[in-house]
Request: fold
Amino acid sequence: MDFDTYRRKKLVDLYKELDLEVGGIVCCNNFVDSNHVLVFNTEKEIMFTKQCIDLAVDLGGNIVRVMASLWGYFQNPWAGQSYGLPSFEARSRRVFRGDDFLDAWHQVRMALTEISKYAKDKGVILALQTHPEITGNNDETLQMLEEVGIDSLKVGVDLPLMESYKPEDVKATVKKTNCLFKKYYKLYGYIINNHYN
Reply:
């Protein structure tokens, strides 16, 4: 990270002056190897995530949001010519080699295990966002947490991607996942109640 020790200290001082605290660091990572030029290889992503964990510690925070993968936001250069992501991906190195979902799942699990151990040593909680493509829903995210088996890895529910916004469904999801961000769901619950009821 290019945020040196001096600048980190200045930010901590500013937070104190404003009577604020760091809520968490958002780490936009992808632990699945990809062909896309904007998505780095897994080893680089692990290093980046560790730097985000270090940044959280230096700023006095203890939560870092992570993702298993982040493929969906990148378009290939030919998308405007009806050569969309499925066609582009079908000719990718990953598919050509015959890699499948389980290979990607295991790759993500190994990376999450490594960074979860690092986070635990630093006293940081990782909030694994329920975000496609590997952990695309709450059940898959809970399965990943079970396989990693390190208590520094928790669920960070991605509200915009929930299957339902009915208040009872939101409450059930928060309860089922023992979601890390429970205190924020009171606010979300208020918003949902006022917009959907």
